[in-house]
Write a structure and sequence with these properties.
Length: 198
């Protein structure tokens, strides 16, 4: 299928291309995947700035939606991907397969970083449903934060960045920009924005 992007989609793709740290907050159905894949194609196969991309997503989205999007659009032809889901052996085989884009479900982030034995040499990460990293105490958050400096580019995608309130934003942005905007520590964030002075 031919991709005829809306103006906001072109704007968002260009934003990703121009900013190594990007967040795309759009409601479901507005094309976050194709926006990001268009940027990935450009970075990997036109500019040669990126070699390996890790996409972290909810299980069904990683298994079904992203592969369907890559296969659907004409302008993405040639973008090789590998789905690292299933048994441990299937995941390891998928991660060893040559590709530009590797898809994994968020439940396996800790396994990938700490147990798989696969070197974390992804130079771009995409977190589809960034709000699933809102808990700074979760294993997936701590594991991803550990390897975050190795990726020179990162994109966070969600339609609900603060579904339970603005406190959710700290962990999401800590992963994205390593504390540049909202601080490196949750206590500083809480004290700066949520605590009234006595």
């Amino acid at each position: 299928m031919k991709y005829n992007p809306h103006k906001y989609q072109t704007y968002a793709t260009n934003f990703i291309l121009e900013h190594p740290i990007a967040a795309v907050f759009l409601e479901m159905g507005l094309g976050k995947s194709v926006i990001t894949l268009t940027a990935i194609f450009d970075l990997c196969l036109d500019r040669f700035e990126i070699g390996k991309v890790l996409v972290i997503a909810p299980l069904r989205v990683a298994r079904d939606t992203w592969p369907a999007e890559i296969n659907k659009w004409e302008h993405l032809k040639g973008l090789e991907f590998s789905v690292a889901i299933g048994t441990e052996q299937e995941r390891l085989a998928a991660l060893r397969k040559p590709a530009s884009v590797y898809l994994i479900n968020r439940e396996n982030v800790d396994w990938l970083v700490n147990k798989s034995g696969i070197p974390f040499n992804f130079d771009m990460m995409v977190i589809d449903e960034l709000s699933s990293f809102k808990s700074y105490g979760a294993k997936r958050f701590k594991s991803l934060l550990k390897v975050r400096p190795r990726a020179k580019r990162i994109v966070g995608l969600t339609g609900t960045p603060s579904s339970n309130g603005l406190m959710d934003l700290w962990a999401e942005f800590r992963i994205l920009d390593m504390g540049k905007r909202l601080g490196r520590y949750i206590t500083h964030y809480r004290n700066s924005f949520f605590t009234l002075p006595l």
